[in-house]
Amino acid sequence: MTALHLADEGEAADLAAFLSRLLHYDRGAAVRLQAAGTALAVFGRPPSFEVLAIRSARLAKPYENGLLVTLDVTVSAGELLESVDESAGTAVVPEAVTGPPWAGVLPPRGGWRPEAGLPAPDALRAMVSTAVREFRSRTEELAPERRTRAELDRIGREIWSRTVGDTPLPVRAVHAAQSLGFLRTARTTPGAPEQATPGLFSSGAWLRLRTPYGSIAVRRAGLGAFDVSVR
């Protein structure tokens, strides 16, 4: 098995936290790993949100000590989490698994352009809190005979499909970012560089909410299977 040497303990801890959150929503979750040079990308799909979550990590040295050697494999998120050694800053790549359908269709690597209109981080977090309260309130008001899975799903789709401000980004993407820890408040120390704020980008049929802690990618509403990278 191949060892990944992460840049430091913090990178290892963040990777472990991301995997733990994915497993919270799906105990059998799989992740797709892509590594080239000193960059590692981990792709996952929390089923509750219908989005792709991407966590990037820095490696201490080029993968397999060669700039021309790359990694591209789908593995068990649980097995990868078990292999993470935070104190050593390492992880072991598990044996490959048969990937779920989403693992073969990823957002494009390039061509991303900024989209205007994304609210500030505090406003995004408040938006999610308001939506969660609305969902709970509306579902609690349902008569027992109407409290069916179909009705709960209908209310959820109505709320989470709304768009964020003047952007085409659905609220469910922001909810996913909040739930996976991507919108957490940055810890700052005196003299440390200011953390980048979340940004919204688009490429073809895809939208990407990028934060300092990870990204959420989602297909634009109403578009079919166009402009995707199958790899």
Automatic annotation (TrEMBL):
Q: Where is the DUF8010 domain?
A: 2-104
Domain called DUF8185: residue spans: 107-222
**InterPro entries in UniProt:** DUF8010, DUF8185, UCP012637
Q: Which Pfam families match?
A: DUF8010, DUF8185
User: Any idea what this protein is called?
Assistant: FAD-binding PCMH-type domain-containing protein
